[in-house]
Amino acid sequence: MKKGTLRKVLHYAGKYRGLVFLSLILAVITAALALYIPILAGKAIDNLTIDGGKLLVPILVRMFVAIVITAICQWVMNKANNVITFKVVRDVRAEAFDKLQTLPFEYLDKVQTGEVVSRIVADIDLFADGLLMGFTQLFTGIVTILFTLVFMFYLSFRIAIVVVALTPLSLIVARVIADKSFKLFKIQSEARADQTSFVDEMIGNLQVVKAFAHEDENMEYFDEVNGKLEDASVKAVFVSAITNPGTRFINNLVYAFVALFGAFACISGGMTVGGLTIFLSYANQYTKPFNEISGVVTELQNALACAKRVFDLIEEKSEEKDKKSAPEKFTAEGVVDIKDVSFSYDKNKKLIEDLDLNIVKGQRVAIVGPTGSGKTTLINLLMRFYDVDRGSIKIDGYDIRDVKRLDLRDNFGMVLQETWLRHGTIRDNITLGRKDFSDDEVIAAAKATHAHSFIKKLPEGYDTVISENGGNLSQGQKQLLCITRVMLNIPPMLILDEATSSIDTHTEMRIQRAFNKMMKGRTSFIVAHRLSTIVEADVILVMKDGHILEQGKHEELLNKKGFYHELYNSQFA
Question: Are 526 and 364 within 8 A, CB to CB?
Fold first, then answer.
């Protein structure tokens, strides 16, 4: 699992192989110079008493030059590592966000919003921290270990053998703890995602929480989730923190053995005091990277655990791609033919079965029925947010699965009960950032929906900046802006899903007149619970349990005294 995740990380880093190569070269130079400085120090010690110390000056000059070059190389290497890390993180985050655009709605139905946010924001941030430490210390540490071994074998083969013999102990300790900490960091990451999801859910529904006095229950649940995160974090950090003391203990043993064997070598005349100083410095430099790498490995466990969650998102199956045979541009007239359509969100629970429907160009089709009857589901199928399980939906003779999704949706203007506004000006929210609309066109659309009257009262009019989801605007005002958005550029077909549910009756009557004008000659689908708003529809579809029970005009259905008659009169009961 970890190896697969690490390979994916290296794949992203491979795009910047030039910088990686530069970092490796600088790591080699830094390590070589760091090992050269103890040699100079040893020579300085051995030459303290020779010729009154005259040989010390050139040695000290070389030491100074080596130290300056080492510092410069380390600075450039750290700069390169920062660039590599944050370019990789940028690419991963961009690919994760791009995946969101292609994920099927089935995935978003089963995964909490906060979970996805946690992966793209928190997990990638932690992944960046671990990756940066890995690039910064891992390269230098490995190169230092290899170079130090070469120098130690050159100075004393027997003492170097002792060092190498004790090294596996440090590696075994680090490996055992790393495996355990990876599992714990994965649990910590999942607990953090649960907490993020819950907080996101509560912030988005704070009014409901307060209305039902659910604060205490929420606090209890948050304490439970927070406790799980605390427990997971404590265990993960505790286990990972053992790595450094464990490897330091082994490394101190190595240092002690080197000092012991080196002292005997000095006594027997096999090594000078300066030589022992060099060897002890190398022993310290050899063991130091193990301590650093053990710390890096701990951070990498956390980073890889977070990276795996992000890669799991990136590797989720995207919605089926548009067919290559799809026409370059599809502009609909508005003839809709639904034949033998069956669909359900949960394949174990039937919803829409064997649905047949023929709609001619320009018809106003109202869809009514009790909650759960399949009204919004039918809209979702028309927009191809979901694909049918069986049967076909054709527009102007084209199966909607044979045209590009973007072209299909360009032919629909959609106003939903749920409003969507983003941070920006009123004008930006109406045009959705498109620059091809003049101010006169925007104002004309706002006047048609009666939004102009409240917009001009705002501090900056159409240039007033609103926060996400409309800020202090009322629900009705937000819905008027969404209607204006469609009114600005009316496509061949319209979908109005409870489009006036948050608007007062007086304004609704005026907007209905605007809608009637807008729908003239356009195929329109109107989902409504207030049946008084659809009495002028060309055809009313009465749905129940995924089937069309009745269809016809308002008066015809009332005269039948069937299910529609019951629904309509229940409003006045």
Answer: yes
What DSSP string runs through 522-539? SEEEEE-SSGGGGTT-SE
The DSSP secondary-structure symbol of 121 reads I
* Rounded Cα–Cα distance for residues 202 and 217 (Å): 12
Question: d(Cα 117, Cα 343) in Å, to the nearest integer?
Answer: 30
Q: Against a cut of 0.70, is the pTM above it?
A: no
For residue 1, is pLDDT > 60?
Answer: no
Kindly report, residue by residue over 264-316, the tens digit of the pLDDT: 777 776 666 666 677 777 777 666 666 666 666 667 777 777 888 888 888 88
- Burial class from Cβ neighbours inside 10 Å (0-12, 13-18, 19+) for residue 410 reads middle
- pLDDT at residue 501 in the model: 65
Residue 481's alpha-carbon distances to 10, 376, 443, 529, 530, in angstroms, are: 47, 22, 11, 21, 21
Cα 251–Cα 253–Cα 259 angle in degrees, nearest 5: 105
The β-bridge relationship of strands 523-527 and 364-368 is parallel
Tokens representing residue 528 in the block:
């409504």
pLDDT in tens, 327-342: 888 888 888 898 998 8
- Three-class SS of residue 513? helix
CA distance 475 to 156: 81
Helix ranges (DSSP H) in 134-156: 139-155
Q: What is the spatial distance between Cα 212 and Cα 192, in angstroms, rounded to a whole number?
A: 27
Residue 53 has pLDDT above 70, yes or no: no
Segment 470-496, tens digit of pLDDT: 667 877 788 788 888 888 877 888 888
The four Cα atoms 319, 324, 327, 332 give a dihedral, to 10 degrees, of -20
State the Cα–Cα distance between residues 118 and 364, nearest whole angstrom: 43
**Structure tokens belonging to residue 26:** 């600088």
Task: Return the C-alpha torsion angle 109, 113, 114, 120, nearest 10.
Answer: 110
Q: Do the Cβ atoms of 336 and 492 come closer than 8 Å? A: no
3-state secondary structure of 332: coil
Distance CA 389, CA 92 (A): 34
CA 136 vs. chain centroid, Å, equals 25
Sign of CA dihedral 142, 147, 148, 150: positive
CA pair distance 75, 524, nearest whole angstrom: 65
What gap in Å lies between CA 532 and CA 527, rounded to an integer?
12
CA 250 – CA 283 distance, rounded (Å): 12
Q: How confident is the model at residue 163 (pLDDT cuts 50, 70, 90)?
A: confident
Compute the half-sphere exposure of residue 82: CA atoms within 13 Å on the CB side of its CA: 6
Domains of the chain from N-terminus onward: 2-314 (1.20.1560.10), 336-570 (3.40.50.300)
pLDDT exceeds 60 at position 443: yes
Q: Are the beta carbons of 188 and 234 closer than 8 angstroms?
A: no
Paired strand residues for 358: 337
Identify the band that residue 212 occupies on the pLDDT scale cut at 50, 70 and 90.
Answer: low
Query: Coil, strand, or helix at residue 451?
Result: coil
